[in-house]
Structures are given as structure tokens and as C-alpha cells.
Amino acid sequence: MTKSTANPRVLSALTLLLAADLCGASIFEEIEFCVLSAVVKMYTSRKKIHKDKDAEPTEFEETVGQALFDLENTNSELKSELKDLYINSAVQVDVSGNRKAVVIHVPYRLRKGFRKIHVRLVRELEKKFSGKDVIVIATRRIVRPPKKGSAVQRPRSRTLTAVHEAILEDLVLPAEIVGKRTRYRVDGSKIMKVFLDPKERNNTEYKLETFAAVYRKLSGKDVVFEYPITEA
To answer: Which InterPro entries does the entry link to (predicted)?
Structure first.
């Protein structure tokens, strides 16, 4: 017997349809419309999500995928650029209080396409996810150091340090990092200050707290984001 791969939500929906059929045609028609709409949304959203190893997308990832699909089909500015773009994953990260950020991971090979439309895309997604900052980061893989004596070379771009640096650069887009400084605390721990180009202050200042929370979540490191002090 082959193992069923049907989505649990679809099976539940079909069960509701059968139950509704026993209650009368009008109720059945209403529920049928709702269920079919949900099924259509599930499949349209998945056009914008490519998971590794056939993993099932989460309900939140389907919501993000649907938002991208809707933008592709309703926003004339983004339609052509979004056509060939899709995401790997999406999660919500706690920032402070009840605030949350939407962190979207996109394929590394598509990062240039996403960067090209970064400001416009983030602006539209933040409208859809009202009250939540949206962060777009390329998916990168960290490779462990080769065993001693091994002839295998590890690319520098796959080291822990390089990946964390790249995450920082993606995180603060559209701003560029213009400086870094490490400060040591009394207890021996350290915190890094990252200085951002003030030219993009209007697009990034409201996200400084979000940048710190997301970077801590992804790297385990504490960072403070600031703008360099300029002389009047």
C-alpha cells in the first residue's frame, strides 16, 4: 500500500464538505466555496515556495507565499521581477514586547533579483503584514572545517565568519555597512557596533531594533546598529 501524501488541511476540508452535504444544499455550497478557495490559495502560494527535500511549508510560509503571488499578479511595478523569484522559508522573530519581524530566506542564486526590487518589495510586504518589519536574507550554508590532513578545501564563503558577515549585509539592506567596532564588557563578553550609511536612514532607522533581534536569532551574537556621527 502506498503512503498517502495528501495535505492534512485538505483532508480536513474534504471531511467538512461531506458533513455539510448532510446538512443541506445551501450550507454545502457555502462551505464548498470556502474550502475550494482555501485549496486554490494553498496551491497558488506554493508556486512561490521551494522547500528542501520535499518538506511541507508551514502555514505561515504559505501566507508569505500567497502575499508574493498576489503582488506578482496585482502590482504592475513588481510583476515582471517577481515572475521567476521564490522563497525557501519564512519565520516570525520576536523583537520586543509584542512586536514581531517577518524573516524571509531566499535562494542564494536569486539574491540579486531580490536585491534589485528590495525597497519596493519590502514596502509592499510590510503593508500586507501590518506592524511587522520584513527582512529578506539569502540562504547560505556553513561548512565545517575539514579534518586535519584532509585535502578538501573549504571555500571562505562557507565559513562561520563569512556567513555571519553576509547575513549582516543582507539584513541592513538597502543601507551599506560603513564601519564596525567591537566593545568589550566588564564581564568579558563583547558586543559589536555596526555603523550604517546615513544615506538610507529613512529606510532603515525604524528597523534598528529589529536588525539586532534578527541577527541575535540567526547568529547568537549581540550587535548594536547605529549611524556614524557627522560633524555639522
So the answer is: Ribosomal_eS7, Ribosomal_eS7_CS
Note the pTM of the prediction, 2 decimals. Answer: 0.78
Residue 110's pLDDT band, with cuts at 50, 70 and 90, is: very high
Instruction: Give the residue numbers spanning the domain of 20.
Output: 8-48
Strand partners, 223: 192
Check pLDDT > 80 for residue 157: no
Domain assignment present for residue 65? The answer is yes
Instruction: State the Cα–Cα distance between residues 167 and 121, nearest whole angstrom.
Output: 19
Residues 71 and 120 in one domain: yes
Which residues fall within 8 angstroms of residue 8, CB to CB, at 6 or more apart? none
pLDDT the model gives residue 33: 46
CB-based contact 107:114 (threshold 8 Å): no
Residue for grid cell 486554490:
40
